[in-house]
Amino acid sequence: MSGKKQWNSHRTQTGPPSDPLEVPNPITPDFIPKLQEYFRSENLLTIQQTNSILAQARKTLEVLPNIVELTIHDPDHITLLGDTHGQYYDVLNVFSLNGTPSPDNPYLFNGDFVDRGSFGCEIALLLLSLKIAYPKAIHLLRGNHEASLCTQEYGFKNEVNDKYNETVYQNFLYVFNALPLCAVINKKIFVVHGGLWTRKGVHLDEIKKVNRFLEPGEEGGELLMAQMLWSDPMDYPGQQSSLRPFGCSFGPDYTEAFLEANDLECVVRSHEVRDEGFSIEHGGKLITLFSAPGYCGDTNKGAYLILKGDQCEKEFHKFAASPHPNAPTYFQVQTCSVM
């Protein structure tokens, strides 16, 4: 792992910023553009500032239900993003293309904010600050990488310890354990990071009862939380064991059974890279959305999905990777095809 000295070596700024940023408590909307530009200029918050954001975020998130239920009406909309994996400058590009999150321009981020990119701290702290400032305008769901298992292996722990310290890393995990697990939009669209379960027809009422304030795999029972963060679709009917630590590969019949059992129309999930940033599978009833273009040095595009009005009309937007500053690589690149 690259040390602090290497991280600082590419900056023009070697000491504290000439205009230090003050983190309000509570965080207010006017703080967001200041934080966004502060990070864009490659500044780091202090440990105290970072812990303040994390403490406020935990308080905001822990009162939310496991399933976030959202309603949009004509002519309103909501924008969905999949994995962003520490690619802060690509997130800023989406905000440039599509507008910054606000009450008139709500967003839902479908997990995997961190790991495998060099700016996971910046993405997570900006998104958490947005959630505190606009609690009803930005929605954050948990991915499999918002957990101890992945962050120890795929870079985020190294990144946090390089930029801050071990206590900050543990505080990030404490916040991640409070993230909601999934969302339902207009009682039509089910949004989850990974996918479905080894059992057909799991009901939403079962998800509401899961103890999410743990690491995935520690929740007991059928490990419903771990499965929904780790599973992937496959093209043919049935289900089979996954090569991943949890979950399964599930077929179109499992998607159909889940949607029918819960009177829903479509599953939107993330968790896997797609060359064009998204794919439509299972007869149009399952969408994979991935929002980290140029992932691990690949040539894939990123995408975001806008759902419009009462009928949740779908509008996909693709985007290419944006330039970003030189920064350490906190993970082994050969692990990009795993987890």
What descriptive keywords fit this protein?
5-stranded mixed sheet; 339 residues; alpha/beta; Ser/Thr-sp_prot-phosphatase; protein serine/threonine phosphatase activity; PPP_phosphatase; Purple Acid Phosphatase, chain A, domain 2; EC 3.1.3.16; disordered N terminus; Calcineurin-like_PHP
The CATH topology assignment is: Purple Acid Phosphatase, chain A, domain 2
pLDDT averaged residue by residue: 93
Binned, the helix content reads: 25-40%
Number of domains: 1
N- and C-termini, Cα separation: 20 Å
Got a strand count?
14
Lateral arrangement of strands in the main beta sheet: 1-5-6-10-12-11
Percent strand equals 15-25%
CATH architecture: 4-Layer Sandwich
User: Low-confidence parts, pLDDT < 50 over ≥5 residues?
Assistant: 1-16
Mind telling me the CATH class? Alpha Beta
* Overall morphology: globular
Structural class, judged by helices and strands?
Answer: alpha/beta
Computed over alpha carbons, the radius of gyration is 19 Å
Q: Give a quick account of the main beta sheet: strands, pairing sense, barrel closure.
A: 6 strands, mixed
Number of helical segments?
Answer: 11
Going by CATH, what is the homologous superfamily? Metallo-dependent phosphatases
Give the topology string: H per helix, E per strand.
HHHEEHEHEHHHEEHHEEEHEEEEE
